[in-house]
Predict the structure.
Amino acid sequence: MDIALEQVLEVPGSRADVILQPGDLLHVPEYNPTVRVEGAVNTPVSVLYQDGASLDYYVRNAGGYTRNADKGRVSVRYANGAGATVSRFLVFRSAPKPGPGSVVTVPAKPEREPLDVTAFLGNVAQVIAGTVAIVVLATR
């Protein structure tokens, strides 16, 4: 489980404070000063963490989004294991800010099958023929 260690140290006994049991292990990962950007970006890369930098800053440093990138489902996995995704409400967009040791993942949009024109025209012809048959029968 991930623990907000800074919050626990500031306010011992708060809701965030977890009581350790005999045999529990506490693992504090080594500080990693980079943010890894992977997935549907032009150049997957590790970018040096910049305090206050936005999600878009890291994506731009990875060469930007590819054509098939799903910009609405970008996620950030923080060094403590917690995760966050981009969210939208009407025209407002909220993007998580990556921290040191984070991994930004840009998923690709699922590929759609190309339109089969022959099958489409066949279906349209069937609908038209059925409609004509119904009209003919109804007018007799």
